[in-house]
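> example.struct
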């Protein structure tokens, strides 16, 4: 049972951390090499795409914006550029066309690079054709600029505050309502046990008296 308990705990926290890693916004510094639009047929990876209106993927295919980049170390990263709309994650992104226009304007070459901080969420899974979603772009001074993920920090602080508030209220409810009820139940069982013991002793005395 101990192994099952720790397995369940590890799986739970792995899911929580994986969910946060996918959902929270992060920043990459790269130069934009190209932008394009391509029709995507949704299949097994449809869960990693938002819908045409930012809410679902009910259609089988549609056009999606993409932004190609190359980092200072030479690695290539390709981002999709989709609205999240009113769906998940709740970033309320409605300006994918504007982001695409900015990305097209910021294209540069290795000889004359323009370094851009790409704020995004999601993962790049090549064998599933899954791409992170670019949320915003801004020019930075160079490839070694340290970009502090303020959005992720703010979201984590709010999330921790909500979890703390819920935990405090649950513990308070348990202390004020559940624990006294359990104590009353325990006292009732104890009283019932004492009564049963007294009746047993009276019966034993009566039985012994009858034998005499």
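> example.seq
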């Amino acid at each position: 049972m101990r192994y099952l308990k720790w397995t369940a705990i590890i799986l739970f926290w792995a899911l929580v951390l994986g969910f946060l890693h996918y959902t929270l916004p992060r920043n990459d510094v790269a130069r934009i090499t190209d932008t394009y639009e391509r029709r995507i047929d949704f299949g097994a990876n449809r869960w990693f795409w938002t819908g045409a209106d930012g809410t679902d993927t009910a259609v089988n295919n549609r056009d999606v914006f993409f932004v190609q980049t190359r980092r200072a170390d030479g690695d290539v990263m390709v981002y999709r550029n989709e609205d999240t709309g009113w769906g998940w994650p709740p970033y309320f992104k409605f300006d994918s066309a504007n982001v695409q226009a900015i990305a097209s304007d910021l294209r540069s070459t290795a000889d004359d690079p323009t370094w851009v901080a790409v704020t995004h969420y999601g993962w790049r899974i090549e064998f599933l054709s899954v791409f992170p979603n670019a949320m915003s772009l801004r020019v930075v001074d160079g490839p070694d600029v340290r970009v502090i993920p303020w959005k992720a920090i703010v979201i984590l602080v709010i999330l921790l505050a909500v979890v703390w508030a819920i935990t405090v209220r649950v513990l308070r409810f348990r202390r004020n309502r559940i624990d006294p009820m359990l104590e009353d139940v325990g006292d009732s069982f104890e009283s019932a046990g004492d009564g049963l013991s007294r009746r047993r002793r009276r019966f034993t005395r009566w039985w012994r008296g009858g034998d005499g």
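> remarks
The chain has a mean pLDDT of 86.
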